[in-house]
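Predict the 3D structure for this chain.
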Amino acid sequence: MDISVVFEDNSLLVIDKPAGFTVNRAETTKNEITIQDWAEKYLNIKYQVSNSKYGEEGWDPRVEFYKRGGIVHRLDKETSGILIIAKTPEAFVHLQEQFKERIVKKTYLALSHGVIKPENGEISVPVGRLPWNRNRFGILPGGRESKTLYKVLSYYQLSGLKEKFSYVELYPKSGRTHQIRVHLQYISHPIFADFLYAGRKTARADRKLLSRVFLHASKISFIHPAIGKSVLYEAPLTKELDDFLKRLKKITS
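Done. Predicted structure below.
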């Protein structure tokens, strides 16, 4: 696994996650190498089993550090970009608290179907796991609140096709699973090549041109757990996404 390290010190590791790798190990990842496997080997973290559970008396939040291989948050398998890995239990707990308190600021880049208007906006709807399809999420009454701000950077069109696309920067203010993908589908502008949310026919046609979801975690800022100051790390668009974008013609809208 070829992992690009963006930053490293005694407290944390910031990597540029490649698309195609699941972040955390699970029952469904027995036959694949995950980012967690890589992190445990790189940082020499050994998984420790604990019978205590969250909320129970005597539960130690540092247990999660070992259970997750230091990985503080997640990206979808096909999403590339910035990912934080803690190197110590103390740093892990500190960073997890920042995510819970929404101190961490994240920025994503996506190419979506259609022309998004207005060019700046907010999507705020309740998101939950679909009862009839446990692999997907959607807008559900009683779902968890979620908010994403967005800004359209430019509009594109692929030569030979009538359809237009929006290249958009997104700033999630909550951290629900598949949030950005669900939000863009909700406003009828699903992400290019999104096999779960763009529709089967559309995704199949997209994947003849691009083999992965066009979603990239480009920036992240947070308070460094050791120095107590705000830091910002960035990951440029991957070559495959950048090359695909260069194939498109920029248009006014």
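Residues 2 and 18 are 8 Å apart (CA to CA).
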